[in-house]
Amino acid sequence: MPIVRTLAFFSLFGLAAGASASSFVVTTDTLVDALAATIDTTSNATSSVVDNKVVLAAKDDAASFVATAGAVRGAHLETALQHIRARMPAVQADDAQLAQAILAH
């Protein structure tokens, strides 16, 4: 009987962990898509921020930032974040969301 309980526990735990991971992915994808849409809409109205050389140069730094959960902050990413915030002060996003949006384009 203890083996059945143990198997049941691990099965339920596995399902819960899978649901949490997929929820995180969906939430992250939703945030990135919404932010990217905001950046595209705003940049089309002014000048193309996403296609700007400063932002394009920050892709590698953005990838490092996202991969290390913010521990690695490159100079190109810092410059791009300042550039985006200066061009679009209405965008309310943290550094991680902006880095993900940079990677999405």
From TrEMBL:
<dbReference type="InterPro" id="IPR012661">
    <property type="entry name" value="CHP02448"/>
</dbReference>
<dbReference type="Pfam" id="PF09498">
    <property type="entry name" value="DUF2388"/>
</dbReference>
<keyword id="KW-0732">Signal</keyword>
<feature type="signal peptide">
    <location>
        <begin position="1"/>
        <end position="21"/>
    </location>
</feature>
<protein>
    <submittedName>
        <fullName>Uncharacterized protein</fullName>
    </submittedName>
</protein>
